[in-house]
Amino acid sequence: MKMDELKDKTIDELKEILASQELKLNQLQFKAGVHQLNTMHEFTVARRTIARIKTILRDKELNNIK
User: What is the pTM of this model?
Assistant: First the structure.
């Protein structure tokens, strides 16, 4: 997801997306462990999305934006 899309979401929506992305990352790690993963690029995308969401959540927390 793009930063602009994520910034428009509420804190609760961001937490839901974060949970789903972390689950997706865990599934990717499992697939990589059993050699069923075709592209490693999915790891990068999932990790970057998680980082973006955490950054926006922290920014909203510091600015008290709900």
Answer: 0.85
Residue 25 · residue 46 · CB < 8 Å? yes
Q: How far apart are CA 43 and CA 40, in angstroms?
A: 6
Q: What's the rounded Cα separation, in Å, for the pair 66 and 56?
A: 12
- Residue 63 CB contacts under 8 Å (≥ 6 apart), including other chains: none
Domains of the chain: residue spans and CATH: 3-59 (1.10.287)
pLDDT tens for the chain, 66 residues: list them: 788 899 999 999 999 999 999 999 999 999 888 888 888 898 899 999 999 999 999 999 898 755
Helices 11-33, 41-63: crossing angle, 10 deg rounding: 160
Which structure tokens are listed for 5? 């899309």
